[in-house]
Amino acid sequence: MPVRPLAGAVAGAALLLLGSVAAAPSVAASTAPSAPSESVTVDAQGRISDGRVTLSGTYRCLGGTGRVFVSSTVHQSSSSVGYGIGGTHAVCDGKEHRWENQGSVPAGALEAGPAHVEATLMELRPSGILLLLPVPHAVQHHDITLVDG
């Protein structure tokens, strides 16, 4: 391939990339702290049984332009490794709803006892062609107890 068309293609790709980076500040402005009407909570107890973890709580959110999910991560103080536990599709109608996430962890990774959970109400907002930007609506960190069952 001749050098000139290749250089043009590289320059065009660089401009597209820079254009998406330049647009990022406007997206960052939209991730400002959420209104008090949006929230996510974590129940004081989660369940663990044969490596299967169940976490739950409530959420409230307003409409978004993309799909919204409640995700959760759990870890215990004996380890700095966090484990993602499922994801629930959220209905953003301003009303309070329950969420429950389930997921499996490696054998022996978690046990009944104290744990720490992070729950996030996250929107995947369309941006440009084929790009989804994660926009948090609410986040909560909560110490819980994992119980057998």
TrEMBL record:
Residue span, DUF6299 domain: 36-148
This protein's UniProt keywords: Signal
Residues of the signal peptide: 1-23
Record's protein name: DUF6299 domain-containing protein
Organism encoding this protein: Streptomyces griseoloalbus
